[in-house]
Amino acid sequence: KNQVEQSPQSLIILEGKNCTLQCNYTVSPFSNLRWYKQDTGRGPVSLTIMTFSENTKSNGRYTATLDADTKQSSLHITASQLSDSASYICVVSATGTASKLTFGTGTRLQVTL
Amino acid sequence: SQTIHQWPATLVQPVGSPLSLECTVEGTSNPNLYWYRQAAGRGLQLLFYSVGIGQISSEVPQNLSASRPQDRQFILSSKKLLLSDSGFYLCAWSFGGTSDTQYFGPGTRLTVL
User: Fold this and answer.
1) Residue in chain A lying closest to B105 (CA)
2) CB-based contacts of A59, cutoff 8 Å, min separation 6
3) Which residues of A touch B59 (CB under 8 A)?
4) I want to staple B27 with a disulfide (CB 3.0 to 4.6 A). Which of B2, B4, B42, B91 is the partner?
C-alpha cells in the first residue's frame, strides 16, 4: 500500500530560525515528490517538485532534498518568517497514474516572535 | 493564465439536506479535474476525478457523487448529508494527459450539523 509519513506532526519555532521537515514514503513505482504549503483554510500551493534523478531543489528560502534509495525527503526552511506559518504537505506520485497522488498528513509549522 | 474557483467558501447544512459544491476552471481546455476532502488532522483524500465531460471515476464509496456537465465545470453533490461529510473540500485541476501537477482551488469548508 502506498503511504507517505511526515514528521514532526507539528512544530513551533522562533522567527529567523531554521527548521527541517521530514517525509518518508513507500510509493511504487516512484514518479516524483512534491512539497506543498497550505495556509489555514486555503488550498495547497506547490513549493517544489523532484523527480527520481534530482536530489535537491530550492525555491527561495525553501530547499527540498530527495534520497530515492532510502525513500526519504526533507524540506528545509531558512530564516523563517511569520508568513511561513502553515501546513507543509509531502505528496508522492506513482508513475503512469496521473490521478494517484499519495498525500502525507502534513506538518503544522508555527513561527512565533 | 489559469485560475480555479470554488463556491461557496463556507457552508453549514443540516443532516439529511442536499449538497452542491461547484468548481470551475478558467484559462485552459480539457483539464483533468479532481475533488478531495480534507478532514481535520488528516491528509487529503481523493474522492473523484474526471478526464473529460461526463467521465467520472470514484475513488472511495461514499455518500457523495460528482458530475462534469461542461469541460471546465466540476460539481460535487449529495442527496442527503451525513455528519461524517463535514470537512474541507478541495477542487483541483491538472493539464490533460499524463501531467500530474495539480493546482488547487481555495476550498469549501462544509459543516454538517
Assistant:
1) A43
2) A47, A48
3) 99
4) B2
Which of B50, B100, B103, B110 should we substitute to test contact with A (largest number of A Cβ atoms within 10 Å)? B100
Measured CA to CA, the distance from residue A58 to residue A48 in angstroms comes to 7
Instruction: Tell me which residue of A15, A4, A59, A17 sits closest to A37, measured CA to CA.
Output: A59
* Among B38, B27, B46, B52, CA closest to B87: B38
Choose, out of A25, A47, A90, A101, the residue to mutate when testing the contact with B (most B CBs < 10 Å): A101
Q: pLDDT tens digits for B52-83?
A: 998 998 887 678 999 999 999 999 999 999 99
Q: Which three cell numbers stand for residue A108?
A: 503544522
Question: What is the C-alpha separation between B9 and B93, in angstroms, rounded?
Answer: 18
Strand partners of residue A22: A7, A74
CB A18 within 8 A of CB A79: yes
